[in-house]
Specification:
This protein has 508 residues and is mainly α. The chain is built from 17 helices and six strands.
Length: 508
């Protein structure tokens, strides 16, 4: 029996007689399919009444040029289906002998999709690209500013709302993720254009100029008017910088005058941890103060250096070092005096200057003047500091002299001081103060064994003094050292006394 034509099977309607059952529907009755409604094609109605022939099939569907007979069943490979798809619904599957038909009913025609015609972009010709051109920076700015004006906002109010984090009651303002992320990236400096770039543009923008005859010209670098009350951009920024630096300098000064900063020396017993010691004054005092200022007051040090120093000069590409009034020394004493003016407890460097003046027999009026301008303490404070140092030095000298492992020399002499009564008054008379002064010197290079009493007694028992002559004493003298010392002495006398040799000696 010849097999029916595939086109006949394709066009045959599904009935209960010729429809193959699915394995899962064995034993269940299959309901008949409902009759197909008439389909409109142009102005006529096509109602399938009989199977279509091959010629009618091709002519009806208009698939193009018919295939050759030997390629009739050369169907394309089926498409890759989803998990929930069935091969029975695939329109490209080949017909089987079981009488099963594809999901498309017989005689039905799939309607063609209408082509979508995208209108060309405005401003472009028929042959131009359909891609929308990118806007320029000016166009983007106009778009954003137009949106701001549409919402009845100003540019300042827009920027204020962008960076505002709390409302008037102090509550946190809710921000979208986009808003929060963009502000965070900008303020953290992770964007290409930073806050510094914008401030630089504001300071140099011609629209921010303040006329010389304007009332706002006096607000530049203002220290009295809060910068939040100043409206022009340049005056507000300069006043903000001035007032912010002023607050920072005050914070640094307060940190520098604290008890543990290193600028405190205590004369009394109130603060034993900072009690005055002889090690506090010496060659390391000024470097110690400089280190404290550099650590605690960096902004203050920068400002004072800008005041004290001009731009360094160069000669042949080499920076000329400043020799007179070195700025580091001047700035250190100036800042130390200001810290002492803030609190009289930060008195390390001013007290050292007061001891220098009093030890140099400076007039008391000069000390009082320096005390008035804050460069040194009062004369009584300097005197008590010297008494404290002398007591500590006395205890150290006694301990060194009592130590059997150390050696030293003591020089003692009588002293006289005549106090003349300049003003003749009742009960006053000239007095001669007679006393004794001593000087103790350490001898760290002396061998302590020379003071051994047993060795001294043994040498005395030998009685070698009876055989000592003048030549023996002269043999103890280093003649080479004596000759060199005498020669240098004569050369120095010649160089200092002869004018033609004096200039060369001074240069050397």
């Amino acid at each position: 029996m010849a097999s029916p034509s595939p086109f006949t099977r394709w066009a045959t309607p599904k009935t209960s007689a010729n429809h193959s059952q699915h394995p899962s529907s064995v034993g269940k009755p299959i309901p008949p399919l409902p009759p197909l409604p008439p389909m409109s094609h142009g102005t006529s109605h096509l109602v399938p009444s009989s199977p279509l022939t091959e010629h009618q099939f091709y002519g009806q569907l208009n698939f193009g040029t018919p295939r050759p007979t030997h390629q009739l069943f050369s169907y394309a490979a089926p498409k890759k289906l989803a998990r929930n798809a069935s091969h029975l619904d695939d329109e490209n599957i080949a017909p089987t002998d079981g009488g099963s038909s594809p999901s498309t009913p017989s005689g039905s025609v799939r309607p063609k999709k209408r082509p979508k015609h995208n209108p060309p972009l405005s401003g472009l010709g028929d042959g131009s690209s359909r891609r929308k051109p990118s806007r320029t920076n000016a166009q983007k700015i106009e778009l954003i500013l137009g949106t701001i004006q549409t919402e009845n906002w100003t540019l300042g109010y827009f920027l204020y709302q962008i960076f505002r984090a709390k409302d008037n009651e102090g509550g946190e303002i809710h921000r979208s993720s986009t808003h929060s992320q963009m502000v965070s990236v900008f303020l953290a400096g992770r964007s290409n254009e930073t806050v510094a770039d914008i401030i630089a543009e504001w300071m140099t923008h011609p629209d921010g100029r303040i006329p010389a005859d304007s009332a706002n010209s006096d607000l530049l670098y203002s220290t009295t008017v809060p910068y939040t009350d100043i409206r022009p951009v340049r005056a507000a920024l300069t006043s903000f910088a001035t007032q912010t630096v002023g607050k920072r300098v005050a914070v640094e000064a307060e940190s520098a005058v604290k008890l543990n900063s290193g600028l405190h020396v205590s004369i009394g017993k109130k603060h034993p941890e900072t009690k005055l010691r002889r090690e506090d004054f010496g060659e390391g005092t000024i470097p110690r103060v400089q280190a404290v200022i550099k650590e605690k007051q960096p902004v203050t040090l920068y400002l004072f250096n800008r005041i004290a120093m001009r731009k360094p000069r160069k000669r042949d590409g080499i920076i000329i070092e400043r020799k007179t009034r070195p700025a580091a020394m001047v700035v250190t004493h100036a800042i130390a005096s200001l810290d002492f003016c803030r609190t009289d407890q930060a008195n390390l460097l001013p007290l050292m200057r007061g001891i220098l003046y009093l030890g140099s027999s400076a007039p008391v009026e000069l000390i009082n003047y320096n005390c008035r301008i804050g460069t040194m303490p009062a004369p009584d404070t300097v005197r008590r500091a010297m008494i404290t140092l002398s007591e500590e030095e006395g205890h150290a000298t006694q301990a060194h002299g009592k130590d059997p492992t150390t050696a030293g020399f003591l020089f003692v002499d009588n002293t006289q001081n005549y106090a003349r009564a300049r003003d003749l008054r009742i009960g006053r008379e000239s007095v001669m103060n007679v006393g004794m002064s001593g000087l103790y010197m350490e001898a760290p290079d002396v061998d302590i064994e020379v003071f051994n009493l047993e060795d001294k007694r043994a040498l005395i028992a030998l009685n070698r003094r009876k055989d000592v002559t003048v030549d023996d004493f002269l043999g103890f003298v280093d003649q080479l050292d004596a000759d060199v010392t005498g020669t240098l002495h004569i050369l120095e006398v010649l160089a200092r006394c002869i004018p033609s040799l004096k200039s060369g000696w001074g240069a050397r």
